Amino acid sequence: MRPNSSIDHQPYQICREGKVKMVTNALPPNGGSGTFSYSKNSYFQKLSSSVEERKIEEEIQKKLDVQKLACGSNKIIRVADLGCATGPNTFTNAKKVLEAIKHKYQNQCPNTETTLEFHVLFNDLPSNDFNTLFTSLPHDRNYFTSGVPGSFYNRLFPQSSIHFAYSTYALHFLSKSPEVVQEMNSPAWNKGRIHYTSASKEVVDAYAAQFAKDAAKFLDARALELVPGGMLVIVMPGVPNGMSYSDIVNGLLFDSMGSILMDLSKEGLFDESQVDSFNFPFYAPSPEEMTKVIEMNGEFNIERMELTNPAPWLKSMNQVIPEWIIHVRAVMEAIFTRQFGNEVTHEMFQRLTKELSEKSELVETKHRDKIQILVVLKRKE
Predict the structure, then answer these.
(1) DSSP H helices in the chain
(2) Is 155 a member of any domain?
(3) Name one GO biological process term (predicted).
(4) How many helices (H) and strands (E) does the chain have?
């Protein structure tokens, strides 16, 4: 039997009006603790988010009135991690945030004998591996915990209940791929590609519109959940204003994935229409786009927004290509597997490592410094 002959791997159909009915919803990264699990392959994300630690601490010290927040909540501070995955990065992030908040409180109330209590709420999709997350909780933690399953594009918490929320390397996953790019009669039909990289303007615009819609829902929900004066921090992939995604190394990654899948379809492993019906729900915004959606919401002040280098330690992409692809696989494999099946997905990642290693000089030309965006927002009082 050929791989992917099962209907389970073909979640699409072509309707009379020429619409490929398949919307790829984001799935959580690989659970467990196996070779390709996120828990074992999230070191790059840890290094990237650590670049922002000092800046986030600065914003907490300068802008977050912990004394006022504590007085209004019986000295209980609630912190939410939006898109927590399976760790261990989420515990590192929580520790750093809580240390910064405690330090600010001590500075504001040096003579108080009252200590703060912390409740950290770990959120991700219901299909996230919360078992692995909670079995790896630090034994020496000084906070209470809860798991909150659900999409952060919807409400997750009671009104005015969260004092500090952060989302690290999660908001770039769209709630779904844009439907218009799967309409065969649409100018935005993304035939033969799996992403907006190197695609037509209509496809790029469709992705941008989907991100704007999703980000608006994300901010609307957080505006209700955060207390007045509460802080929201976002760290995610980004691009400089006006730069095409095909100009950076992640764009080359998606182009290579798409071409490999097309090759596999031509080899008879599956029908080409499965590529046409698949568009990866990933979007990296520019600061200009982020500013626009935040201003449209109107409930937050922008305290800090900047593009940074997510890998200042990296001198050459060539030295990390195989490890990079394993990290990519840990994050993205589930989405590809649902569409193409295990065997095809495994073969794609094998060929991807080989192809990008052989194109190391081209990979190096696509490496850019400032492709991570930091956003620090404060809920208006």
Answers:
(1) 43-50, 53-63, 66-71, 89-108, 130-135, 201-225, 249-266, 273-276, 287-297, 321-340, 342-358, 360-366
(2) yes
(3) methylation
(4) 12, 7
Instruction: Mention every residue, 6+ apart, whose C-beta is less than 8 A from residue 19.
Output: 179, 182, 183, 184, 185
Asked whether residue 310 is domain-assigned, the answer is: yes
Residue type, 55: K
**pLDDT-flagged residues of the chain (< 70):** 1-26
CATH number of residue 287's parent domain: 3.40.50.150
* CA-CA-CA-CA torsion sign (132, 133, 138, 144): negative
Which residue in this structure is represented by tokens 């100018």? 187
3-state helix, strand, coil in the chain (%, to 5): 45, 15, 40
Q: How many CB atoms lie within 10 A of CB 319?
A: 11
Asked if the structure places residue 90 within a domain, the reply is: yes
User: Whole domain around residue 93: which residue ranges?
Assistant: 7-379
Cα separations in angstroms, 211 against 130, 196, 290: 26, 12, 10
How many structural domains compose the chain? 1
Joined tokens for residue 22: 């398949």
Output DSSP code: residue 139.
T
1: in domain = no
pLDDT one-digit tens code per residue, 40-87 = 777 778 888 888 999 999 999 999 999 999 999 999 999 999 999 987
Residue 25: name the closest of 353, 377, 335, 359 by CA: 335
- Terminal CA-CA length for the chain: 62
- Measured CA to CA in angstroms, residue 46 lies from 49, 140, 373 at distances of 5, 20, 15
- Does the CA dihedral 20-26-28-29 come out positive or negative? positive
Starting at the edge strand found earlier in the chain, the sheet holding 76-82 runs 144-149, 117-124, 76-82, 162-168, 226-237, 372-379, 300-308
